[in-house]
Amino acid sequence: MEDGEVVWVEERERDRGLNGEDGEDLYSMGKWHFCPKNAQMSDKVFLFQTFICFCIIRLFRETEKESEMVQAKVKETYYISHGSPTLSIDDSLPARGFLKSFRDTVYGGAQRPPPNSILVISGHWETDYPTVNAVSGTCDTIYDFYGFPQEMYKLKYPAPGAPQLATRVKELLTASGFQRVSVDKKRGLDHGAWVPLMLMFPEADIPVCQLSIQTNRDGTYHYNLGKVLAPLKEEGILIIGSGSATHNLRALRQSRDGSVASWALEFDTWLKDALLNGRYEDVNHYEERAPHSKVAHPWPDHFYPLHVAIGAAGENAKAELIHHSWDLGALSYASYKFTTE
């Protein structure tokens, strides 16, 4: 048998590798390779060259990791109107089709690397103080809705938890003056998180963390909370506020002609104009400045995630309407993207 050295070679692409005398690619697939010595090469020279090859491989690997981290930076945040829980199964809803195409038509498709983790601020998690869920392992799917078709209670979104992101969120909030930030190590994903995510990122392979809202505070508070979270985008974290542009459940009704309640239309139009023209202070004080604010949002739980998304986008963020549709005569699925160049 020919003299040589058995070495571990990291997985690399063949066209980027170094070829031995036998033509085998030393970068091909992570396997043990037999590297024959040149008959005229001394043991010391052979071992030295093997060591150099190993160092080069490690250098390329570390450089690639750094490049991936740079590519993973996220410039935008989103506010997604998740509407009714039936969004999870009802193909007649235009918003469902929009969210299923989100990865390709809005987020950049296969050419853009996925986010490192996702932080969701959902209208379905209210606490007195900011709270993050730090799940080790797979997140439970919470069915926080009642009286819907049984098939909805069989749906699963087994995304991994993001305890490191939870720790980072707590660090940022605490350093910025939030005196009390809690951590919940058991809570899974409510339907404000898993319903849109199962359509947007159906593989369920991106770690997810949720942050609660405080309905005993106001829009400005949540906007400022979002500003604290803005550095997460540089770390490859996708921040999504999940609520509804209008959310008055008692006013919902079937409409044969597709008509929309006038109060809902006026509020939704005001919101669009305010966001697209950068009047974020008006949105922060929507209760006083928007038409029919108390009818559109009798309770602010589904609106405060919008304020967090705006704040987290950063200074001088530009809003873009990425989807708009109606259901049940008063439920707006208006969704927005906020980008800072």
UniProtKB/TrEMBL annotation:
The protein's name in its UniProt record: Uncharacterized protein
Organism: Rhododendron molle (Chinese azalea)
